[in-house]
TrEMBL record:
Region of interest (Disordered), ranges: 66-103
Gene Ontology biological process terms in this record: protein secretion by the type V secretion system
Subcellular location: Cell outer membrane
Protein name: ShlB/FhaC/HecB family hemolysin secretion/activation protein
Keyword annotations: Cell outer membrane, Membrane, Protein transport, Transmembrane, Transmembrane beta strand, Transport
Biased composition (Basic and acidic residues): 66-82
GO-annotated molecular function: protein transmembrane transporter activity
InterPro entries: Hemolysn_activator_HlyB_C, Polypept-transport_assoc_ShlB, POTRA, ShlB_POTRA, TPS, TPS_OM_transporter
Family per record: Belongs to the TPS (TC 1.B.20) family.
Length: 598
């Protein structure tokens, strides 16, 4: 473990920088850089943050935060399904012919459910107690049987049957026999393409009662792969109460290539960006997937402006669990000018590695609750005029625990999330020294995170709809944070309208709102849609002392997107609506992205 220095800058982590010359550089320029950063340290200590810190410090932080933001988004896309969760609607099974109860009324003091292994004793009492102690005729007994059957259907156990066997009701005791059914076999119909692994999609289900929720989960794991489009059906088994689950799939090719270009990159490393993505489904025959993405500056200048980011991820499911690992490496080069005209070059690289486990802890027709745990290691190295910036370069290890809920709400879909991030002194991470001042950033920090979103589509005519969406994301920490853990405002994924300047600090939030008109069409045998939309975003960040990059941003966007087959074009005009008085003004900017997959 490497001990953190006693003096550091939370805004750029380089208020007091110690240089380790690891590359050849001019001695005079080296003393100039050292002097400038020493001056920045003194000015930071006196509170002159915005005017005193060299622009390179904030510029470096923004570059690495944006690279980290894009990489995290790519990891999320690799892990998550492009399709909504399955929602299989249970249908009440037709009850088989059985001996009808006598039409006369019988006094029943006690009711028992035989074979109802999935119903707890307490729930059994809740179901039967309204009928116990009454004189039951045939109609009331039928109602009781329907009540028990409805419980099974609501729980997704659609193969369960309730019977009334021969018995003497004059004893005052009524016994209903439940046959919960079992899954006898899982059959895959995919034209012998081996596109589906039932071992990881439906583990432990054979011989157990058939539960629709388990089937939904398995279908989600299968259809997470874009090469699959699976459907299910249930057939009778070879014996009474047994069922056969049939999974029909029309698989597409397992590999995909995605090409994209956009002008949403940082002005300091080159706005024109391009990416190539490669992915392969069912690599090991376990419903797994592997993805690789390379993103880089297209309008690069070899010595003054460049950025490259590579990411690799692997995802494997197992029933209600999804496991993923990933690795990314990013690098940048940029140049900035001092007030006197001196130009300095900065470059650096960062690597991120993580392991993650997701567990669906509850699901029904309307709700999906997921618990997630992630362990991430981050290593960043920065250089100014080929001199290694010791304090600005660091290793951090972070543990995340998250709980997320997807739910049907107000005619749409809502997402709620809450999580905790904890800095750990593990795997070579920076270890906080004892006696750090309150203004020093912490490697062993604690941070709370919350998020919420809602979206709904309002059909207005065949093929036409109005789409609404709103989202909120925020974080809070009692600790001063390093730049990589702060909240960044002013980017494609937070507050639109800002491409050159941003705000970043320990605590804050942002809100994004969109409204769009979507229209479906077909052209040349391909289906597609075009969408006109408007967006309004806003956010606020604040540090513990209230200075630095504290403040609020607001921005607006107006755009149009067109999707045809596997090609998509999105272009919009964005403009700043509100900014702090000290932040330079940015004019309206047109941003566009074009992507194509095959």
């Amino acid at each position: 473990m490497r001990r953190s220095p006693m003096l550091s800058n939370r805004g750029g982590d380089t208020a007091a920088l110690f240089f380790t010359p690891t590359r050849t550089s001019s001695q005079k320029l080296g003393w100039l850089v050292t002097g400038l950063l020493g001056l920045a340290s003194a000015q930071f200590a006196s509170g002159a943050f915005a005017q005193g810190i060299p622009p390179a410090i904030q510029q470096i932080e923004r570059i690495q935060q944006e690279q980290q933001e894009r990489t995290q988004r790519q990891f999320d896309l690799d892990r998550e399904s492009a399709r909504p969760p399955s929602n299989l609607q249970p249908v009440a099974p037709a009850q088989p012919q059985r001996q009808r109860p006598p039409s006369v009324c019988r006094d029943i003091a006690e009711i028992s459910l035989e074979g109802a292994l999935s119903i707890s004793p307490g729930t059994q009492r809740e179901l039967t107690s309204p009928y116990a102690g009454q004189c039951l005729d045939a109609g009331k007994i039928e109602l009781l049987m329907g009540t028990v059957t409805a419980w099974y259907i609501n729980e997704g156990m659609i193969a369960a049957r309730v019977y009334l066997g021969p018995q003497d009701l004059s004893t005052g005791r009524l016994t209903l026999t439940v046959e919960e059914g079992k899954l006898e076999k899982i059959r895959v119909d995919d034209k012998d393409s081996d596109s589906i692994s039932t071992r990881t999609a439906f583990p432990g289900m054979l011989g157990q009662p058939l539960n629709l929720r388990d089937v939904e989960q398995g279908l989600d794991q299968i259809n997470r792969l874009l090469s699959n489009d699976a459907r299910m059906s249930i057939e009778p088994g070879s014996e009474a109460g047994a069922s056969v689950l049939v999974i029909a799939n029309e698989p597409k090719k397992r590999w995909r290539v995605n090409l994209s270009a956009d002008n949403t990159g940082s002005a300091s490393t080159g706005p024109l960006q391009g990416s190539v993505g490669l992915s392969f489904d069912n690599l090991l025959g376990l419903n797994d997937s592997i993805s690789f993405t390379d993103r880089r500056t297209l309008d690069r200048k070899s010595n003054t402006r460049d950025s490259v980011s590579d990411s690799l991820s692997y995802v494997i499911p197992y029933g209600y669990n999804t496991f993923s690992v990933g690795f990314s490496k990013s690098s940048y080069k940029t140049m900035f000018s001092l007030p006197g005209g001196t130009r300095l070059t900065s470059d650096g690289d960062s690597t991120t590695a993580f392991v993650r486990a997701d567990r669906v802890v509850f699901r029904n027709r309307d709700h999906l609750l997921t618990l997630s745990g992630t362990l991430t290691h981050k290593d960043s190295k920065n250089y100014l005029e080929k001199q290694y910036l010791d304090v600005s370069s660091r290793q951090l290890t972070v543990g995340d625990l998250d709980l997320s809920l997807r739910s049907a709400a107000f005619g749409g879909v809502a997402f709620l999330g809450a999580g905790w991030s904890q800095g750990l002194n593990a795997f070579g991470a920076l270890d906080d020294a004892s006696g750090l001042p309150d203004t020093a950033p912490r490697a062993q920090f604690g941070k709370a995170r919350v998020s919420a979103s809602w979206m709904r589509s309002f059909p207005i005519a065949p093929g036409h709809s109005i789409d609404l969406s709103t989202s909120f994301s925020g974080q809070y920490s009692r600790d001063v944070l390093y730049g990589s853990e702060q909240l960044l405002l002013g980017s494609v994924y937070t507050v639109r309208g800002f491409s050159r300047y941003s705000l970043s600090n320990d605590n804050g939030y942002f809100i994004r709102n969109d409204i769009g008109l979507r229209n479906a069409f077909s052209l040349g045998g391909y289906s597609g849609d075009w969408r006109v939309y408007a967006g309004l975003d806003g956010g606020y960040v604040r540090g513990h002392r209230g200075d630095g990059d504290s403040g609020s941003l607001a921005g607006a966007a107006l755009g149009v997107s067109v999707k045809l087959g596997s090609a998509m074009l999105d272009t919009y005009v964005m403009n700043a609506v509100h900014r702090p008085s000290w932040m330079p003004k940015e004019g309206a900017r047109v941003q566009a992205s074009l992507s194509f997959s095959f």
